[in-house]
Amino acid sequence: MQERRNNNRKNLAVYSRVYDRDTGIVLGYLSDLTQKGAMIISDSPIAENIIFKLRFDLPDPALFSTDHLNMDAHVAWCNPDLDPAFYNIGLGFESVSIAESRIIEEMIVAYEFRRNLPDYPSK
Questions:
Q1: CB neighbours of 57 closer than 8 A, spacing ≥ 6?
Q2: At residue 4, does pLDDT exceed 80?
Q3: Cβ contact 40:27 at 8 Å
Q4: How are beta strands 87-93 and 68-80 bridged, if at all?
Q5: Binning pLDDT at 50, 70 and 90, where does residue 10 land?
Q6: Which of 4, 17, 82, 89 could pair with 57 in a Cys bridge, judged by C-beta atoms 3.0 to 4.6 Å apart?
Q7: Domains identified in the chain, total number
Q8: 121 occurs within a structural domain
Q9: Is position 29 within any domain?
Q10: Is residue 6's pLDDT more than 90?
Q11: pLDDT tens for residues 18-45?
């Protein structure tokens, strides 16, 4: 079943590290972001439907009044990148608080790429 995206993706100009909070392992780097989810670029594939407790490093703590954002997310899809050494991994946020939503919107506005690219495949 093909899932259609309801929010346009915003590609970020700054790549923030994304960690698994349980293990401290870097899962990948934030590539784009919406209020409902994100895409990371990783050097390892991740199975779909796994739920992670994530920590996103924020690139400018002074701008966001914190240096990280903790979110729970499930892996919606995992596809090979154009570069065969990497994978694009779609994450769906489990829930987003008002405070988290504000930080996400601030990140989108502050670090959005100003270019037109085709959407990543949903699967």
A1: 16, 17, 18, 19, 67, 68
A2: no
A3: yes
A4: antiparallel
A5: very low
A6: 17
A7: 1
A8: no
A9: yes
A10: no
A11: 999 999 999 999 988 889 999 999 999 9
Instruction: Identify the pLDDT of residue 116.
Output: 45
CATH number of the domain within which 26 lies: 2.40.10.220
> Under 8 Å CB-to-CB from 90, ≥6 apart: which residues?
37, 38, 39, 75, 76, 77, 78, 120, 122
7 falls in which pLDDT band (50, 70, 90)? low
CA separation for the pair 38, 28 (Å, rounded)? 11
Residue 117 pLDDT greater than 70, yes or no: no
Question: Closest Cα to residue 71, out of 17, 5, 15, 18?
Answer: 18
Q: Go through the chain and tell me how many residues it has.
A: 123
Q: Give the helix/strand (H/E) hosting 111.
A: helix 98-111
Confirm whether 75 is domain-assigned.
yes
